[in-house]
Amino acid sequence: MGSSAAPLLVIRHVPFEDLGLIAPALEAAGIRYQYLDLFQDPAAPVPDFPALISMGGPMSANDDLPFIRRELDLIREAVALGKPVLGICLGAQMIAKALGARVYRNPVPEIGWFPVEWTEAAALDPLFQGLAGPETLFHWHGETFDLPPGAEWLARSAACRHQAFRAGRGVYGLQFHLEVTPAMIEDWCREELNAGDVSTLPAPIDPLENSARLAELSEMVFGRWAGMVAERS
Length: 233
Description:
The protein has helices spanning 22-28, 66-80, 90-98, 182-190, 195-199, 211-232, and strands at residues 8-11, 33-36, 52-54, 85-88, 103-118, 135-145, 152-156, 164-166, 171-174. By secondary structure, the protein is α/β, with parallel strands linked by helices. Helix 1 crosses helix 6 and helix 2 (66-80) crosses helix 3 (90-98). The radius of gyration is 16 Å and the shape is globular.
């Protein structure tokens, strides 16, 4: 992708949930990006963009808020135009809802490091092929989603059936946080907006528990997605 190409758009829902380990994957593929903080200005102008990433946040995709409604419209438009879209945690729930699926409370909150298992479809998926056994990944969510119509189910955990899906080519929702660094986890645990979640934990979260392996997986998965974006641009 040349430097003159329009930057990929990254929707943040809170300032502290940013790209993390997605950023180096984009940079390695020569993809520029810019943040769009609709939570600060729901009516902000949206430039043309080749692909869209929706990050996490403590709010719900079901909240009747102007910036949530605006983002759902942007996701629908991007998917309809065949643009790659990636959603992380809340972002995955936003994609699911935008594509007609239900978002609702998970039976239990899932916060910390927990194993994720891959479905048979994941073995053939452009992002997850090559992964066989369970991987211990980082989670921080209280809600979940049904699969959008026609989506491929890619991953599950003991506490949350729908951990990842692909809707068409290049549109992915990941409930788990493959993008986090140890510093991000430490920061999230200190954030006032997360204090209620942190107070329910039986023990403090170890930011380093599986961070080395998570970084390897992040480089692979996000590198593959970034490659898809670069090819289409």
